[in-house]
């Protein structure tokens, strides 16, 4: 997912991805890649290198990656390049990086610098209040701001020029500065001249330090344009890859959701099919029973269809007798109203049929109570 390793291989011939995997724990490898990418986009003259031995914050010797090269600093209306070595410890970002200023030929470190010791080790507010969310790009930004106010290097003193300077025409011409001879910085207290920041061509493989009046060679201009184009391409490609990764994650989420819906539908279909099979079996059994009953009605009598016990048959007879007596009583009342029989005959038959109906009903009630107790 990192195009940064491709850029490292093209520019330095080093397999940075393998080195990061070797030198840094898995939980911080992606963070190291990300911060190095941002650093190279903002400071294109920095070059990643492997440091054989680096003095760690715990006083131990360890291997680590470093970013070496010049950073652009604006001081006194002029642009200069300050060579630095930024070491990335193996426990980064738990602890801050270590940055050293490497003075070029013709320059020396400024003594009694507020943010640098005598060996060139730099510090700033962000290092003193370091948090794992901080980055070494922020550290470099703070150093650029500090060096713009208080330069870390100055011209080699006159008595040392014969052994440390380039000569009259190398790198930087102090007569081209747009400043008055009497101006000076409050810190550091330099009595002779303004601090001059010079990039060493021999010590660091990067474009040389130029003032704002210098001219780049055609090859340097071409190299700068190529780096700018590649930086733009890297930013666009990383943005496109991030968008594709987000789209892929969304598609995976939707795919998982669709799979769950499909599984639920499949379970519903299986349940419906099972219900249909049961319903079909019930219908088949019902048709078989209807066919059986239809055929049986042509050959069976009423007694065969009723098929009841002796006690049930007795109850059936008493109920039938009660119904017949009720019909007779109704018929007698009709005949009495029509004057077809006299009242004496009507009363005689009513007494006989009423007594018979009473016994039939009593017997039916007794049979029903016995059946309930059983």
From TrEMBL:
Record-linked PANTHER family: TUMOR SUPPRESSOR PROTEIN 101, TUMOR SUSCEPTIBILITY GENE 101 PROTEIN-RELATED
GO biological process entries: endosome to lysosome transport; protein transport
Domain of life: Eukaryota
An MF annotation (GO) of this entry: ubiquitin binding
Coiled coil: none
Region (Disordered): 162-191
Keywords annotated in UniProt: Coiled coil, Endosome, Protein transport, Transport
GO cellular component: ESCRT I complex
The keyword Coiled coil is assigned to this record: yes
Pfam families hit by this protein: UEV, Vps23_core
Protein name: Uncharacterized protein
Polar residues bias: start-end ranges: 163-191
InterPro entries found in the cross-reference section: ESCRT-I_UEV_domain, ESCRT_assembly_dom, SB_dom, UBQ-conjugating_enzyme/RWD, UEV_N
Residue span, SB domain: 309-374
UEV domain ranges (all copies): 13-157
Record localization: Endosome
Family: Belongs to the ubiquitin-conjugating enzyme family. UEV subfamily.
């Amino acid at each position: 997912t990192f195009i940064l390793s491709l850029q490292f291989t093209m520019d330095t011939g080093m397999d940075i991805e393998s080195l990061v995997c070797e030198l840094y724990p898995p939980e911080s490898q992606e963070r190291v890649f990300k911060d190095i990418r941002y650093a190279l986009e903002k400071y294109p003259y920095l070059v990643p290198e492997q440091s054989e031995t680096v003095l760690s914050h715990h006083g131990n010797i360890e291997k680590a990656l470093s970013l070496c090269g010049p950073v652009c600093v604006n001081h006194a209306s002029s642009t200069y390049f300050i060579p630095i070595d930024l070491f990335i410890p193996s426990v980064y970002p738990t602890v801050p990086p270590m940055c050293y200023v490497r003075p070029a030929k013709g320059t020396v470190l400024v003594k009694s610098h507020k943010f640098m010791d005598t060996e060139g080790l730099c510090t700033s507010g962000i290092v003193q209040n370091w948090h794992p969310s901080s980055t070494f790009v922020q550290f470099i930004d703070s150093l650029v701001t500090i060096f713009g106010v208080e330069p870390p290097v100055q011209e080699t003193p006159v008595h040392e020029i014969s052994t440390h300077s380039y000569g009259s025409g190398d790198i930087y011409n102090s007569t081209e500065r747009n400043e008055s001879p009497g101006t000076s910085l409050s810190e550091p207290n330099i009595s002779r001249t303004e601090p001059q920041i010079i990039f060493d061509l021999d010590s660091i493989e990067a474009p040389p330090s130029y003032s704002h009046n210098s001219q780049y060679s055609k090859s340097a201009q071409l190299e700068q344009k190529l780096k700018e184009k590649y930086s733009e391409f890297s930013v666009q490609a990383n943005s496109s890859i991030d968008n594709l990764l987000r789209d892929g994650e969304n598609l995976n989420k939707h795919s998982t959701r669709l799979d769950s819906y499909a599984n639920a539908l499949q379970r519903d279909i299986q349940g419906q099919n099972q219900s249909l099979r049961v319903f079909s079996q019930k219908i088949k059994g019902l048709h078989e029973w209807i066919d059986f009953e239809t055929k049986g009605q042509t050959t069976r009598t009423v007694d065969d269809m009723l098929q009841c016990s002796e006690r049930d048959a007795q109850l059936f007879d008493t109920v039938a007798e009660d119904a017949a007596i009720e019909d007779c009583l109704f018929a007698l009342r009709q005949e009495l109203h029509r004057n077809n029989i006299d009242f004496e005959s009507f009363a005689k038959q009513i007494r006989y049929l009423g007594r018979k109906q009473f016994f039939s009903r009593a017997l039916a009630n007794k049979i029903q109570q016995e059946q309930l107790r059983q």
